[in-house]
Amino acid sequence: MKHTDFFARIRALKAAEYKELQAAVELHGGMYEWDLRNTEHPIIAVNPDGIIPSPVDVRIYRVYIREGALRLCGVEKECREEVRFQPDEAFAGHLSIIIDYLPPVSGNRQRLKSIQYGNH
Question: How far apart are CA 37 and CA 12, in angstroms?
Fold first, then answer.
């Protein structure tokens, strides 16, 4: 039976989220950090191994760009041990959660909007 290619849609959604998060981090000078002692920081679900499903809730404490690639740093929500993962291992819809926690940058909203709507 034919059906919508949901996997392709998920890949497209994740690519758009990556692009928007990278643009938002660039607006913050290429890096942003949260203090994990504060309760205001993003928590996202990731599958760190990518092959075998083993989802983990990760408290993000740093996002940055190195050599043109977006990098994320976080600790496991409960035990607070470092979790190493790639942005594409985040669940679809979760990279945008990080954007929600970035403070606004005055004067640069238009650039982010152009990326969001493909006007660049």
Answer: 34
Residue 102 CB burial class (10 angstroms; 0-12, 13-18, ≥19) = middle
CA 78 to chain CA centroid, nearest Å: 20
What is the three-state SS of 39-103?
CCCCEEEECCCCCCCCCEEEEEEEEEEECCEEEEEEEECCCCCEECCCHHHECCCCHHHHHHHCC
Look at the chain and count its residues. Answer: 120
Which pair of tokens denotes residue 40? 């205001």
112: Cβ contacts below 8 Å, ≥ 6 apart? 20, 23, 24, 27
Give me the tens of pLDDT residue by residue for the chain, a chain 120 residues long.
999 999 999 999 999 999 999 999 999 999 999 998 888 899 999 998 767 788 999 999 999 999 999 999 999 999 989 999 999 999 999 999 999 999 988 755 555 555 555 544
